[in-house]
Amino acid sequence: QVQLVESGGGLxxxxxxxxxxxxxxxxxxxxxxxxxxxxxxxxxxxxxxxxSWSGVSTRYADSVKGRFTISRDNAKNTVYLQMNSLKLEDTxxxxxxxxxxxxxxGDAWGQGTQVTVSS
Length: 119
What we know:
Layout: E1 3-7, E2 10-13, E3 18-25, E4 33-39, E5 46-51, E6 58-60, E7 68-73, E8 78-83, E9 92-101, E10 104-109, E11 113-118
Parallel strand pairs: 2-11
Antiparallel strand pairs: 1-3, 3-8, 4-5, 4-9, 5-6, 7-8, 9-10, 9-11
């Protein structure tokens, strides 16, 4: 079965940076987009960023544009989320996911990694 394992979360001060990783295994991910969602306490899960199989195409939520960068290493079946200039409102559990296109995600989910931004 598909397995997605996130890592890299933690506690960081506002303005700081973190890099999340998501390692995929269990089947081939050739051709699949990979992305990140997040869920803050009391809120619905929301889209953060997605990257195409080739890495050429990306898409970001308006709230993270210019601060977050998604990338991938297909040789390692791993997707990354570099998060800079973190804000208090970025505090959430971050989930990795895969999908067939940049707009069709969610065929598999990781267990999530907590990101907490403090003032």
